[in-house]
Amino acid sequence: MLTIADVLDSADVARLRETLAAAPFRDGKATAGPEARKVKANQQAIGDDPAVAALAAFVRRALERHPIFMAYARPSRWSRLLFSRYRGGDAYGFHTDDATMEAEDGRRLRTDLSFTLFLSDPTTYEGGALLVDGLDGEREFRPEAGSVVLYPTGQLHRVTPVTSGERLAAVGWIQSLIGRADEREVLFDLTRVRWATPEGDARLLLDKSIGNLMRMWGKP
Asked: pLDDT of 104-156, one tens digit each?
């Protein structure tokens, strides 16, 4: 799991919140699978609305510009981005996301990674934490607005009840070029070492190794 701060700056977050305040929303159960629908209580912006679609494209471009996000996720294909809203009493019980979903082009994608981009200042709402259940127990996330949490899609997770205020977030799923989590981690570690290595023979060898591993492991 990875938390990345400042994917969006405060001005961008404010613009998204202002646009979403006037956007049409519907019951979030409409986009949940049969089991998840039983424990889901929130609202989601209607993706076909032109203003909402423009926001989704803006968020996608921001994520694609972020070097840490791209080095970790190495996206091959993206799902449609969803904007979720939780108000008093809304929650999303423990569930797993579907193993395949509809991609932006209408075909199916394999969901390797899930992400939640937080859009609400954590001081403006109570509850609404993202809890991800791993082998080391539950981890709770309520980061600053503009931060993204990225985690393997197969993990159980939930959103705790919002007891006051409003929690806004953008959520989405990625099919990575690198399907295995351990291989993604190796490439991420090597990339971070490369960023810290001055130009010269050592960096060239890292570029060679990263490229060869991408050819070995990568599956568009």
From this structure: 888 899 999 999 999 999 999 999 999 999 777 889 999 999 999 999 998 99
Taking CA 100 as the corner, what is the angle to CA 98 and CA 101, rounded to the nearest 5 degrees?
Answer: 90
Give the CA distances from residue 81 to residues 20, 118, 179, 201, 218, in Å, rounded to whole numbers and listed in that order: 14, 13, 21, 41, 24
- Domain positions in the chain are 2-176, 181-217
Kindly give the residue spans of alpha helices, DSSP state H, lying in the chain. 10-21, 50-65, 67-73, 181-195, 201-217
d(CA 122, CA 170): 15
- The CATH number of 2-176 is which of 2.60.120.620, 3.30.70.100, 2.40.30.60, 2.40.110.10? 2.60.120.620
Q: How many CB atoms lie within 10 A of CB 53?
A: 15
- For residues 80 and 172, the answer to whether their CB atoms sit within 8 Å is yes
What is the average per-residue pLDDT within 35-50? 91
